[in-house]
Amino acid sequence: MMAQCLAFGGRALDQGEHNKKELFLRACRFEPTERVPVWIMRQAGRYLPEYQAVRARHSFLEICKTPELAAEVSLQPLRALGVDAAIVFSDILIVAEAMGMALDVPDSGPVLANPIRERADVQRLREFDPAKETRFVGDAIRLISREAGPEIPVIGFAAAPWTLACYIIEGQTRGDISTAKKMLHDEPEMIRDLLGRIARATIPYLESQIAAGAAAVQLFDTWAGELNREEYAAFALPAVQDVVDGLKDYEEPRILFTKGSGPLLDLLIQSGADVLSVDAMTDLAEARRKLGRRAALQGNVDPSVLLGPIDDIRRAAREAVEKTGSAGHILNLGHGILPATPLENARAFVEAGQKAPTAAKVSIGKAG
Q1: What's the predicted TM-score (pTM) here?
Q2: How confident is the model at residue 100 (pLDDT cuts 50, 70, 90)?
Q3: Whether residue 12 has pLDDT greater than 50
Q4: Residue 11: inside a domain
Q5: What gap in Å lies between CA 11 and CA 24, rounded to an integer?
Q6: Which residues contact 124 (CB under 8 A, 6 or more apart)?
Q7: Is 245 designated active site?
Q8: What would the DSSP string read from start to end of 314-331?
Q9: CATH number of the domain that residue 292 is part of
Q10: How far apart are CA 167 and CA 11, in angstroms?
């Protein structure tokens, strides 16, 4: 089944370019690179005809929970775009389900049928064994790693505690977290309890992904920007620190993506993450100035740019690289790729980033 699945809908993986994994890891560690590595958040998704073909035959959760299918769609962007990393196809709510929430993913978006409303609900959440309840994620990473080969990095991921807490409280992903915000103010200790439970469950979940072969892991904090600085420092940041610190004995880089990150940069650096992935509202040059070499940067072209002319896409990719001097930078979008993005536009973004002059090249050119 796996051989047939991986042959579906795409060209063979490019073996001509050597060791994208080492390139990616050097960028994460702020070490010199010959160019910036490039990948795209949500790169395995609806904009890809190959993904649509798989999705027509299988439900979203079936793909997530069938390692062969998850591996297939995770590998599709490598074939179609030539990106420098694969990210395992999964969902941030898998952890919520493993903790005891009832998860369904209709076409209208994920739904948790029993959202948290009181302290007893929080106490019912359980710890889980990733080797059993979420083994399919690790198995998918193992398959991706085997098929892509040792020179392609595979990225694992989970939700940051605050973001997962929002979904657990709201019960859906429709953009309104007013119930979670009200609970934060009315029941702060209950929220801290919830965040702590999520953090403790997330650490072994990510450890299992690293054990399966993930070269790096990323925390997605989509709703961090809905908190003011005081709220973020008091609630979200300590839980992120717990997760990052829980992985400190691993050499695999820890990436923190935060939407609405600009005003929080000085707090985000306190997370201990090796890489801060920032949204399109954050100026990369200003972020580099503030952070120096304390963390690598990932991002942050506006996903809507990829809906426009090819020349604009190439310019945006080059300008993003220029703003960081290419050092300690992984080129990406500021959020997930939009489903309406033309394939050729996504490919133009990747190619432009991979061809963008690095600081080393510029320096050599001036010297020569």
Answers
A1: 0.92
A2: very high
A3: no
A4: no
A5: 22
A6: 100
A7: no
A8: HHHHHHHHHHHTTTTEEE
A9: 3.20.20.210
A10: 37
Judge whether 205 lies within some domain: yes
| Identified catalytic residue from 35, 42, 197, 254 | 42
Q: What is the pLDDT of residues 171-213, one digit of tens each?
A: 987 778 999 999 999 999 999 999 999 999 999 999 999 999 9
Q: Give the DSSP H/E element, type plus range, for residue 196.
A: helix 188-212
Place of tokens 């717990």: 242
Q: Which domain holds residue 36?
A: 19-367
What are the two backbone dihedrals, phi and then psi, of residue 142, each rounded to the nearest 5 degrees? Answer: -60, -40
Out of 47, 51, 167, 232, which one is annotated catalytic? 167
219, 158 contact by CB (below 8 A): yes
Is residue 10 in a domain? no
- Strands (DSSP E) contained in 116-168 are 154-159
Number of C-beta neighbours around residue 85 at 10 A: 24
142 catalytic? Reply is: no
The per-type count for the chain, helices as H runs and strands as E runs, is 18, 9
Is 350 within 8 Å of 81 (Cβ atoms)?
Answer: yes
- State the catalytic residue, choosing from 35, 47, 51, 91: 91
Catalytic annotation present for 42: yes
Whether residue 9 is contained in a domain is answered as: no
- Please count the structural domains in the chain: 1
Verify whether residue 46 is a known catalytic residue.
yes
CA distance 351 to 293: 26
The 10s digit of each residue's pLDDT in 209-229 is 999 999 999 999 999 999 999
Let me know if 167 is a catalytic residue: yes
Pairing of strands 275-278, 254-258: parallel
pLDDT digits (tens, 9 = 90+) for 267-325: 999 999 999 999 999 999 999 999 999 999 999 999 999 999 999 999 999 999 999 98
Please write the tens of the pLDDT for every residue from 118-152.
Answer: 999 999 999 999 999 999 999 999 999 999 999 99
